[in-house]
Structure prediction request, 822 residues.
Amino acid sequence: MLTIKNIGELALFPPGPIGGRAMGKVERITSAAVVVDEDRIAWLGPESELDASIGGDVLNAEGGCVLPGLIDCHTHTVFAGTREHEFVRRIAGDSYEQIARDGGGIRVTVEAVRSASCDQLVELALPRLARMLRNGVTTVEIKSGYGLTVADELKMLEAIARLKKLQPIELVPTYLAAHTVPREFDGRGDAYLDAILDEKVLLRISGEGLAEFCDVFCETTAFDVAQSRRVLQAAKKFALTPKLHADQITQIGATVLAGEVGAISADHLETIDDAGIDAMKKAGCVAVLLPGCSFYLGVKQAPARRLIEANLPVALATDYNPGSAMVESLPLVMGIAATQMRMTPVETVIAVTANAAAALNRADRLGAIRVGMQADLVVLDVPNLERLVYEPGRNCVRTVIKNGSIVVSPG
Amino acid sequence: MLTIKNIGELALFPPGPIGGRAMGKVERITSAAVVVDEDRIAWLGPESELDASIGGDVLNAEGGCVLPGLIDCHTHTVFAGTREHEFVRRIAGDSYEQIARDGGGIRVTVEAVRSASCDQLVELALPRLARMLRNGVTTVEIKSGYGLTVADELKMLEAIARLKKLQPIELVPTYLAAHTVPREFDGRGDAYLDAILDEKVLLRISGEGLAEFCDVFCETTAFDVAQSRRVLQAAKKFALTPKLHADQITQIGATVLAGEVGAISADHLETIDDAGIDAMKKAGCVAVLLPGCSFYLGVKQAPARRLIEANLPVALATDYNPGSAMVESLPLVMGIAATQMRMTPVETVIAVTANAAAALNRADRLGAIRVGMQADLVVLDVPNLERLVYEPGRNCVRTVIKNGSIVVSPG
Prediction:
């Protein structure tokens, strides 16, 4: 038993997905306590109503706000190499296309990942995950997609599987072999899809639990709608739930496809249109926005307010990757969403907890503080949730509890 | 003696101010070493040329990049209270004016500072400065301006004076009594100026070293050009060097005034015009940009590229304050400048070192790595300076050396 006392504000909202105006609603219990029994939340309420006979350990929240553990539901945290020189070229005005023509872009990361061993990928990712945990993040989705051969994609998924056992964050693997067409298949995207959608490959990924989701970059420079449909329908046969990189740069109908295939989420959405919004609503699809990416690229943000007004459940994630979003801090991304997209602090909190859990098919267990839910909790050093978003760039996390255990302590 | 060995990249540029294209130029010595003798840099160069007979302590930079200690040349770090509820109202669409009419805005901070003792202001500022130091910041300018009575302004300056002795960062105090017209003087700005420009007050501030600079918020909602001129001319008589909050919201000629009075810097500049640029160039005025503020308010950034092309020396600072820029991380502000203003990483580094030192009249001693300069140095955990800007929101600082002493160590 672990009792968290002296909680300045306990933030309560239902499990996700939470759409539209309901995203602005939070119940706050002040002077609260939470009792954790093994890995579950056993009781919560005003500290004055706490059963005095409860034994076990006590954690003093020192008046801090307590939130569900944060969930980063779209990342590329397993990668090798950095691309700071490309970053400098983009600032100087070179386009992504120019940089790609000169051998830059995603292919640089693909080469580095292909050259790395699984052990090396694990070693590179561990400190990243350790820093994410200190930022209050207790669940992270990680995509493959920098191998672009069956063997290298499997190596990335294997690295994620190993990382699960080496640190406390719950990792959620996604198969993103359809990230881009690799150099060897230039002009032969369908042939590349033949390789990565081989039934034996999908059977292994699904059977060994190497991925839960299958994602595709549906974009003029990657895979068109017909190809993306093919990827996601093939994956569904092997119980890999569809996700899409959709409507980022060009409007080609990716979010309409998301609705059609019943994707659990469509991610990016900078150029989403009304048809896409309708399709996502009908399919119950979570809108995952990645404001750190638009910030990093210095381009227009997704229309968060429009999506919330359309009653979609909006989630936020870092998109952490070495090309378009070398931003690993989910709280900073919440600050970017607040200042650049006008999402309120309450909306950003729900977007990285209840709705992010829904985007990862874990809303029954993660993303909200309720009796019976998993005890993934973050204790802040500030008295209300607004302060977490009000101070971008400062780590306000004092203590992190994962699955009932204290995994980050103050100092 | 302290020898820093195994430096992956030592970034060299001349002392500030550095204007225009020269801001893009840096000399990089790889596999470098630096020798520190007492508080000064005694030698620097390739490690292969290091005198093997030098004794003393050795610091292994482990291949990290070494930069001058970062300088935050425009902050309001001494304050009391927070304004997260106003932050939420702004996101919801309320204007600063509406919030001010409802009793919000700067006056909330003024009330909190007036109610606080000098000791309390010191206690509140200490952890902020400790975090700034861990971000590699070794010199911080701090303004008064939340007291708005002579006694409360002196209390703020006294707090800065005490803070100088309590922690390693070099603090540079600025008298900003002309921050806004306090409630008691509503509609009587000139009468307020009579009070704060009283010769006995200015004599004490100058004589006791309570401030080095005098700043004024030259804006339609604060002090007009004639009033601002009066403030800065009065201050100059007492050897308080002029600075201005200029051209932030409205173009009323504040940067032209900066040139006229020979201000050492004009800060903000979101609405600067050609006349202002010319005036600043003629006066040798440093352009201090505050991209964290525009980011925080979700408004247009200052035209950094235009100012650099006009050959002005550009500095960057956080503007850290509880209303318009609750952003304490200078490296994050460098990232905002790179992604939102298209300043290159090299330009951002020079902007927070050589040029920030120039904005604080310390370019002879701080802001560049040269033999004879003060040994304020930052060792990064990344091999080149680009990486510091490439990874916004991650603290890349491994070791901080202030005045020849190690004040932040890894871990």
Observations:
- Chain A touches chain B through 35 residues (CB under 8 Å).
